[in-house]
Amino acid sequence: MKAIAVRPGQANSVHQRDIREPDINSIPGGKGIRIKVLKVGVDATDREINDALYGNPPKGDDYLVLGHECFGRVEEVGANVRLVRPGDYVTATVRRPGGSIYDTIGTYDMTSEETYYERGINLLHGYLTEQIVDSEEYVVRVPTGLKHLHVLMEPMSCAAKAIQQAFECQRRMKVWRPQRAFVLGAGQIGLLSTLVLRLKGLDVYTLARAPGPHLKSEIVGGMEAHYVSTRETSLTDLVAQVGKADLIVDATGSSSIAFEAMQALGHNGALVWTSITGGKKQIEVPSDKINIEWVLGNKLLLGSVNANREHFESGIKDMALGEVMYPGVLQKILTNPVDGLEGYAEMMRLLVEDQSALKVFVNVADD
Ligand code: BGC
Ligand code: ZN
Questions:
Q1: Which band of pLDDT confidence, cut at 50, 70 and 90, is reported for residue 152?
Q2: How large is the average pLDDT for residues 76-102?
Q3: Taking the domains of the chain in order of start, what are their residue ranges?
Q4: 141-to-42, 173, 178, 209, 223 alpha-carbon distances in Å
Q5: How far apart are CA 65 and CA 69, in angstroms?
Q6: CB of 230 within 8 A of CB of 252?
Q7: Which ligand is nearest to the CA of 96?
Q8: What is the C-alpha separation between 232 and 228, in angstroms, rounded?
Q9: What is the DSSP string of 4-57?
Q10: Does 304 contact ligand 1 (Cβ within 6 A)?
Q11: Is the CB of residue 53 below 6 angstroms from any atom belonging to ligand 1?
Q12: pLDDT of 299-309, one tens digit each?
């Protein structure tokens, strides 16, 4: 069957190839699920793997099948599968367990090992192919009523985890009632974080460069959040106008903005970093100022990566509620479909060149 792969370590090596069909019996205990891949989303991670900034092939292979945002339909289930049936729409988690204690209790997103296993990213083949097989443990049902949001399930799981982690950490405060949030970046993670925070009742300011009106500002406005163009209003100006934030989520992909955000957080607040910055950028920061403010304000900095099953499930619930609160808004994120696996060159072109492509995804097969 067809697959889209790269040769890790070799820049711009994205190509189509033939791979063997997966075998449902490769999963022990009758827990295997065979899924027909319908759509796969791609993001900056796929672009940076094709730039050879990171990514490794599975042991014994010299290629890595790309794609970690999957949406498909169950074709066949093993004898002991309970959670899904043939015909169900599903997505799948990305990371697979290593050997730490966190891996053994279903929280593989929190592995303490340096080596991590992620489908389509590191040491495991991904989803940009015609069929996949996985264990019931990693397959998550998508309600039929949300099938129009297909590839957003995985990015949503990362946004859901980041915010859930912040709330979990803030249990250090006996009472924490955050009112104002800044979301830095209006890409998929920024917009989905905006939704999660709005559903928690926060006043949300979502910041990105370009002055509106445009699609991103429309989506932010559609969730009753405030879109702020940093060309018109800098983060410092915003703080002067509305005050510091109780919670900040950085999803800009820029490490300098991640550090700048440290000066926009209020006392007892939490700043969550979610960007994967594959480059080598170095900047100067006002370290004494930040240090004293952080100590005197009991502030928290938190990194968050990946997501486990629980975050997929809570993200899906938030999407369902989001559809009721703000009908039709989420699907506006899904801007750039690419036709078929054969369209992989166009897929990469959109990822690399098209600044207006908010979400690129491949229509692998018809439903
Ligand atoms: C993926 C995450 C993954 C991270 C680091 C992101 O693009 O969505 O699932 O953990 O990259 O590899
Ligand atoms: Zn991703």
A1: very high
A2: 98
A3: 2-142+335-363, 157-303
A4: 20, 35, 32, 36, 25
A5: 12
A6: no
A7: 1
A8: 8
A9: EEE-TTSTT--EEEE-PPP-GGGSGGG-EEEEEEEEEEE-HHHHHHHTTSS-BP
A10: no
A11: no
A12: 999 999 999 99
CA distance 171 to 224: 27
Q: For domain 2-142+335-363, say whether CATH 3.90.180.10 is its number.
A: yes
At residue 278, the pLDDT reads 87
How high is the pLDDT of residue 90?
Answer: 99
100: confidence class by pLDDT, cuts 50, 70, 90: very high
* Among 40, 43, 45, 304, residue to substitute to test ligand 1 (most atoms within 8 Å of Cβ): 45
Same fold, 2-142+335-363 and 157-303: no
pLDDT digits (tens, 9 = 90+) for 242-259: 999 999 999 999 999 999
Q: State in Å: Cα 289 to ligand 2 middle.
A: 34
In this structure, the residue with its CA closest to atom 2 of ligand 1 is 306
Whether the Cβ atoms of residue 272 and residue 162 lie closer than 8 Å to each other:
yes
- Here the tokens at position 176 are 């924490």
Instruction: Extract long-range pairs of 172-176: CB within 8 Å, 24+ residues apart.
Output: 172/300, 173/268, 176/246, 176/268
What would the two tokens of residue 98 be? 């290593």
pLDDT in tens, 308-335: 999 999 999 999 999 999 999 999 999 9
What is the sign of the dihedral through the CA atoms of 184, 187, 193 and 197? positive
The C-alpha atoms of residue 291 and residue 286 are separated, in whole angstroms, by: 9
Q: What is the pTM of this model?
A: 0.98
**157-303 is classed CATH 3.40.50.720:** yes
User: What tokens does 66 get?
Assistant: 């790309």
Expressed in angstroms and rounded, the spacing between residue 257 Cα and the centre of ligand 1 is: 20
Asked if 37 contacts 90 with a C-beta cutoff of 8 angstroms, the reply is no
Nearest alpha carbon, ligand 1 atom 3 = 306
